[in-house]
Write a structure and sequence with these properties.
Number of strands: 10
Helix content: 25-40%
Mean pLDDT: 95
Largest sheet: 8 strands, mixed
CATH class of one domain: Alpha Beta
Structural class: alpha/beta
Order of helices and strands: HEEHHHEHEHEHEHEHEEHE
Strand content: 15-25%
Bound molecules: S-adenosylmethionine
CATH topology of one domain: Rossmann fold
Number of helices: 10
Shape: globular
Low-confidence stretches: 282-287
C-alpha cells in the first residue's frame, strides 16, 4: 500500500465527498431513530495542511482553502455551511487560517447524536493508530484495523435500519473496481435500507461510466454526481471525481443541483470546469 491521504486531504474530491456525507448525515438526523455510519476506508481522521506532504501537493489550497475563502451568500453557501462548520470546528485556533482538515471519520463523529453509532475500518496500521487518537474515547464510535471490504462483510447488516456506508478506496489495485462492485452489491442486498456512497476518481470516463451503469442496474434508486475542475489532460493532476449514491436521501439530488455549480465555479483550476447530476431507477439508460 503506497497511498497516503496526507497528500490529498482537503482537495476538490474530498470537498465533494464530505459535502455529500454531511448532507446525508443531516438528512438522517431529521428523525430521532438511531442511525449507523460505516466508513470502509476511514484514513487517519485529521490531516495537517501545513505538513510537507500537503504543502508539496498544494491540493488543499485548490480545494477546501479556496472554498472557505470563495464561498459567498446564497442557497449553495447555506447547504455547504454545515460542512464548512465541521472543518472550522476541527481547528485548534479559530482565529488562525485553517491548518487542519478533518477526514470522514471526524466529520461523521461531529454529527452523531447519543443514539447513533459509527464503525471506521482502516487497514494501514499508522493511519489506524492516528485515527484512534483522533477519535478519542467515545462509546459511539468503533475504529477497527481491518480490510474495509472484510469489515463491510462482517458488520453487515447493522442493527439499525437507517444509516450510511461510505466506500472511499485508494484505487491502487488493478482489481479495485471488481472488489468494490462485489462488496457493495453484497452489502446492498444485506442492508437494503442503507445509503451507500461510493467514491471514485474519474480518470477514464468509460470505466467510471460502466461502473455507475452496472451499479444503477442493481438498485431502484441512485444518484450519480461528478465534479470536474479543469479539462483533464495527460500528466496533469486528477481533474474529475465522482460519487455514486445508492438509496440517496430524496432531497440530495436537488441539493446537489444547487451545490455543484458553486463548487465548479469556485474550485475551477482552469477551463473545462463542469459538473454532472443524474438520478434514476434501475436500468435507466441515462445512467
Ligand atoms: C482515500 S483514503 C480515505 C479518506 C477518508 N475516507 C476521508 O474521507 O477522510 C483511503 C484510505 O484507505 C486506506 N486503505 C487502503 N486499502 C484499504 C483496505 N483494503 N481496507 C481499509 N482501508 C484501506 C488507506 O490507508 C487510506 O487511509
Amino acid at each position: 500500500m503506497n497511498y497516503r491521504h496526507e497528500f490529498h486531504a482537503g482537495n476538490f474530491a474530498d470537498v465533494l465527498k464530505h459535502a455529500v456525507l454531511v448532507r446525508t448525515l443531516l438528512y438522517l438526523r431529521r428523525k430521532d431513530k438511531p442511525f449507523r455510519v460505516i466508513d470502509t476506508h476511514a484514513g487517519a481522521g485529521l490531516y495537517d495542511l501545513s505538513a510537507p506532504e500537503a504543502v508539496r501537493s498544494g491540493e488543499a489550497r485548490d480545494g477546501i482553502l479556496r472554498l472557505l475563502e470563495g464561498v459567498d451568500a446564497g442557497a449553495a453557501a447555506e447547504l455547504l455551511a454545515p460542512y464548512l462548520d465541521a472543518v472550522r470546528a476541527a481547528q485548534i485556533d479559530a482565529f488562525e487560517p485553517p491548518r487542519l482538515y478533518p477526514g470522514s471519520p471526524l466529520i461523521a463523529q461531529s454529527l452523531l447524536r447519543p443514539q447513533d453509532r459509527a464503525l471506521f475500518c482502516e487497514l494501514l496500521p499508522e493511519a489506524a493508530q492516528a485515527l484512534r487518537r483522533t477519535l478519542g474515547r467515545d462509546a459511539r464510535v468503533k475504529p477497527v484495523e481491518i480490510d474495509g471490504y472484510a469489515g463491510l462483510k462482517a458488520y453487515m447488516p447493522p442493527k439499525e435500519r437507517r444509516g450510511v456506508v461510505l466506500i472511499d478506496p485508494p484505487f491502487e489495485r488493478r482489481d479495485e473496481y471488481e472488489r468494490l462492485f462485489d462488496a457493495v452489491v453484497a452489502a446492498m442486498r444485506k442492508w437494503p435500507t442503507g445509503v451507500f456512497i461510493v467514491w471514485q476518481p474519474v480518470k477514464e470516463p468509460e470505466i467510471a461510466g460502466a461502473f455507475c451503469r452496472a451499479l444503477a442496474a442493481r438498485t431502484k434508486d441512485w444518484l450519480r454526481i461528478e465534479l470536474q475542475v479543469e479539462t483533464p489532460a495527460p500528466g496533469r493532476p486528477l481533474a474529475r471525481t465522482g460519487l455514486m449514491v445508492v438509496n440517496p436521501p430524496y432531497v440530495l439530488a436537488q441539493e446537489m443541483k444547487i451545490v455543484l455549480p458553486a463548487l465548479a465555479r469556485i474550485l475551477a483550476r482552469g477551463p473545462g470546469s463542469e459538473f454532472l447530476v443524474e438520478s434514476g431507477a434501475a436500468g435507466d439508460p441515462s445512467a
